[in-house]
Amino acid sequence: MTTTVAFIGLGHMGGPMAANLAKAGHRVLGHDLVPAALEAAAGAGVVPAGSAEEAVSDADVVISMLPAGRHVLGLYDDVLGPARPGTLFVDCSTIDVADARAAHERAVAVGMRALDAPVSGGVVGAEAATLTFMAGGGEGEFAEARPLLETMGKKAVHCGGPGAGQAAKICNNMILGVSMIAVSEAFVLGESLGLSHQALYDVASTASGQCWALSVNCPVPGPVPASPANRDYRPGFAASLMAKDLGLAANAVREGGVQAELGLRAAELYAAYAERVGDAEDFSGIVRTIRDGNGEQA
Ligand code: NAD
Fold it and tell me: Is the pLDDT of residue 225 over 90?
C-alpha cells in the first residue's frame, strides 16, 4: 500500500531513511532547514517541500528525525494545525522521555495520533535499511506504522505506551556506555599487568566478560579487525552521540530518583571526552582518555 509520508529532518539519518521509503514506492514529501540536505533527498526520490507545514498538509504519516526534543516540540507546534485530523506522527529522533511524552500529549490533544520510535543502528543502518526501531504509543498506532518502520529497518519492537521507545533507547545506551568504559578500563589494567590485548580478548570474549563493547566494537586495535580502533577511532558511533544519549539517561535517572551511579558517572566521562573530540572519534576512543589518565580533567 502506498502511503503519503511527510519526512521532516533529512540529515545523516533522516536523508537515507526518507530515501528508502521513496525507493519502496511511498510518496515522500521531505523538508529540512538546510537546502543541501533537501537537494540530496530530492536526488533520491523525495519530493522537496518548501516548509514543514506544506509537507504535512497532505500526509497520512509525519515522520521526524531531528536533533533534540526542542526541535520536535517546535515542529509539532508548527504543524499540528495544518495536518489533517487523525494524522499519525512518528518521531524517530532520540529525545528526552519527558519531551516525547509532551509531544504525544500535544498531538493527541488536537485529534492526531502519535508514536515515539527512536532507532539504533546508526548511519550505516539508515542507509542499508537495517535499523532497529523501539516504539512507544498505542497498539493500533504501532501496527499502522510498522510496515513503514520495517521498510527503513530490519526490526521494530513495541515497548509500551508514550515515551517507552525513548526509555528503551536510553536504557540500552546506558548499558553500552557503561560497558564500553568497563571494557576499556580492563584493557588498560591488563596493559599495566603485562597482559596482551589478544590474550584478554580471547578469554573475556568467550567468558563472563563478553559484551557488544568487547566483541564487536573492541576499543583496542587487533582482536576485532572491523572495530573503529583499527582505523584510528573514526566513527562508528560518535562520542558526541554517546554523550548526548547518556545525558538523556542521566536526566531520567535524576528525575526518577534512581540509584544509577555508574550511569551518571559514564555520562560525566563521556560529556568531558566528547567536548574534546566531538563527532570526530568513535565512542570507543575513550580508552585513550583512560590510558592517558586524563579522564578526570578531560
Ligand atoms: P543531523 O544533524 O545530521 O540531522 C538533523 C537534521 O534536522 C539536520 O539536517 C537539520 O537541518 C534538520 N532540522 C533541524 N531542525 C529542523 C526543523 N525545524 N525543520 C526541518 N529540519 C530541521 O542528525 P542525525 O545524525 O541525522 O540525527 C538525527 C537524530 O537521530 C538525533 O536525534 C540523533 O540523536 C538520532 N540518532 C542518530 C544516530 C547517528 O548515528 N547519527 C544514531 C541513532 C540515533
Answer: yes
Q: Is the pLDDT of residue 294 over 60?
A: no
Question: Cis peptide leading into 236, omega within 30 of 0?
Answer: yes
Task: Give every CB contact of residue 18 below 8 A, 6+ residues apart in sequence.
Answer: 5, 7, 10, 28, 30, 41, 44, 46, 63
Helix (DSSP H) and strand (DSSP E) numbers for the chain: 13, 9
Write the CB contacts of 283 (distance below 8 Å, at least 6 apart in sequence): 177, 180, 235, 236, 237, 238, 239, 241, 242, 270
Residue of 7, 10, 12, 79 with the most ligand 1 atoms within 8 Å of its CB, for mutation? 12
Q: Is 129 helix (H, G, I), strand (E, B) or coil?
A: coil
List all residues 6 or more positions away from 192 whose beta carbon is below 8 Å from its beta carbon.
none
Q: Is 241 close to ligand 1, i.e. is its CB under 6 Å away?
A: yes
Ligand 1 lined by 31 (C-beta under 6 Å): yes
Cα dihedral angle (163, 10, 273, 166), rounded to 10 degrees?
10
Instruction: Output the CA 27–ligand 1 centroid distance in Å.
Output: 21
pTM of the predicted model, to two decimals? 0.94
Q: CA distances (Å), 78 to each of 1, 64, 115, in order?
A: 28, 13, 18
Q: Which residue has the CA at smallest separation from atom 8 of ligand 1?
A: 11
Cα 126 to Cα 135, 151, 182, 210, 225: the distances in Å are 17, 10, 28, 27, 23
Q: Which is the catalytic residue, given 154, 155, 169, 244?
A: 169
pLDDT (tens digit per residue) in 2-30: 999 999 999 999 999 999 999 999 999 99
pLDDT at residue 268, as a whole number: 98
DSSP state letter for 197: H
Q: Is the distance from the beta carbon of residue 12 to the nearest atom of ligand 1 less than 6 Å?
A: yes
Nearest Cα neighbor of 59 from 128, 6, 112, 131 is 6
